[in-house]
Amino acid sequence: MSKSVKAALIANGIIASAKGVAAFFTGSASMMAEAIHSTADCGNQALVLVGQRQAARGRSEAHSFGQGKANFFWSFVVAVVLFLLGGLFSVYEGIHKIMHPEPIENPWLIVGIIILAVTLEGGALKVALKESGTKLKDIFKTIKKSSSSHILVVLIEDSGALLGLFILSIGLLLSLYVDPIFDGIAALMIGILLLSLSTVLFIELKKLIIGESLDRETIREIKNLVKEESNVLVHINSVRSMFIGSEEVLLVISMNVKDDKLGYEIEQDIKELKYKIQKRFKEHKLHIYVDVFEF
Predict the structure, then answer these.
(1) What's the average model confidence in pLDDT over 190-198?
(2) With 49 labelled, which of 80, 96, 136, 225 sits at a CA distance of 20 to 30 A?
């Protein structure tokens, strides 16, 4: 179990319970939307754990490269749950309250829950940022580039949770001092936020599930390393790659080699190349295969 998933699971479990109680006693639609949001997040962390455990089973006769893509599949299920349970229900609740607005009772209970939730969600996000080596300003860049599906899920859910709490706070103030209808509007906006976050997850996880490659810059660096370090290289035909798990990559290099080199020299050169590539890109677990053709 990764620290970020564990922290998010504990935080969301506490927050979901607190928000549910607050929604019951205050009658707030936006608080109910947030309770559903946190409940969905809590269930999602459990699904991520299922994926991590399956991915950790390793190789088998049926899965020659292991089951690393199980992480991607279960994280995709997370996106579906977030879309259906979190987003659509919150939109429905928001529309219902807009059509039938009611004043909020016990608003200070909501304030207390918001403070608790911000503290716990902020702590969970901090753990996720530390685990992924990401700065707060680089969250969107990490979401776009990361192949660690559990990091994607936790970063998107935790940052989304904080945005949801901000919307809840604004909705509370406006419903208390302007018009109760703003409580329903806030719930609707939280629903739209959840639908947007799940769509981002859909897009990023689809890339990984169908076989995303390393980025162009990394491929270029690999080619340059081979050119600099190989003593038998004549020409690089191709460098192909595919993520087969979280930070786990299948890398296939096709190259022409000098025909005056002996077999053991070529074999030793390839062995050293594999070691140097893995050392240079140690953030990935690489399965490197080199196809050689005499030229």
Answers:
(1) 88
(2) 136
User: Who contacts 128 (Cβ-Cβ below 8 Å, separation ≥6)?
Assistant: 4, 7, 8, 134, 151, 154, 155, 158
The answer on 273 and 135 residing in a single domain is: no
Question: Same domain, yes or no, for 204 and 245?
Answer: no
Query: Is residue 234 within 8 Å of 259, Cβ to Cβ?
Result: no
Q: Name the burial class of residue 80, with classes exposed (0-12), middle (13-18) and buried (19+) by CB atoms within 10 angstroms of its CB.
A: middle
Q: Are 233 and 227 in contact (CB under 8 A)?
A: yes
Domain with residue 53: its CATH number is: 1.20.1510.10
- Structural domain of 33: 3-209
**One domain for residues 89 and 226:** no
Given the structure tokens 């987003």, which residue do they identify?
87
Band of the pLDDT at 219, cuts 50, 70, 90?
very high
State in Å, rounded, how far the first CA of the chain is from the last one: 49
